[in-house]
Amino acid sequence: MQRSKLRFWFAAVVLAPVVVYGADPGQRISFVSCPIIRDTKSVPCWISQYNGDTYYLTIQSDVSAAVQPPMLGHQVLVEGVVSDAPSICGGIVLDPVRLSVMPERDDRCNTMLPADDRYTIDFNPRPPGPSSGRLAFAPAPRTRQAAPPPAPEGPQSMDLYFDFDKGVSFRHPGELSSILSLANRLPARKVKITGMRGAHLLTDKTLLRESESVGRRRAEEIGRLLQGAGLTVSPEIELADGKDEADGIDDWRTRRVTVVLTP
User: Fold this and answer.
1) What is residue 72's DSSP assignment?
2) 220-245 pLDDT, tens per residue?
3) Position 69 pLDDT exceeds 50
């Protein structure tokens, strides 16, 4: 047997998930580990292993999916709640779950497992041609026009959340459009953008922190995008640190930018 084939066979046998239900339903869990991709007859699935258990993460999908898949060559930060749903792809289901691809390259994260008839995904692939779903930047479909909402009063605040150590992604354009619309309706005479450096308390009590400059980078990027889209007020930039907020419960909320509009 060739060495490359032997290595793949060894990885498939040793790393094939053996589900050990050590985590209780409802338990919050967060960890950083290498993602593993497994082929199936319908669509590849992503799993990961932590503390002797195997967890199902998501399927391989495009940018329109609610949960973005991880990638090989990088570890993934997994944040979720253990579900009592039947296992998927041989892994414990987390619901809800948030995934963040860690920015540093890790060549150990390269495991691909072959299809196994024990694991199937209930998935209907879309037909050839353009997606029938709405694209990330496409406007919402036109519906019957409703009465305009009442004009807002007083300062208005909106939060935008980010993947670990990352900036603006495909899910942010709609939120930015909402902020710009609100700024025009007030109208806003002062705009303050606070960029927070996120922190995350893992299940093993490790405190994970983002890079020192990420809060400023996010705040300035949001400011540039709003001004490029028509915001006429020059925003004030402030910085914050989420270290004191990290408690292992929804710590993804510390990875944020807060925009405050003052009329």
Assistant:
1) T
2) 999 999 999 999 999 999 999 999 99
3) yes
Query: Which residue is associated with the tokens 């032997």?
Result: 6
Band (150; pLDDT cuts 50, 70, 90): confident
Does residue 187 have a cis peptide bond before it, meaning omega lies within 30 degrees of 0?
Answer: yes
Domains assigned to the chain: 3-113 (2.40.50), 156-262 (3.30.1330.60)
pTM: 0.79
117 forms beta bridges with none
| Tokens representing residue 203 in the block | 């299940």
Q: Whose CA is closest to 97, among 122, 66, 74, 125? A: 66
β-strand partners of 202: none
Alpha helices (H) in the chain, listed in sequence order: 3-15, 173-185, 214-228
Cβ(180)–Cβ(231) under 8 Å?
A: yes
Residues with Cβ within 8 Å of 47's Cβ and at least 6 positions away in sequence, in order, are 17, 35, 36, 38, 54, 55, 56, 57, 89, 90, 91
Helix axes 173-185, 214-228, angle to 10 degrees: 60
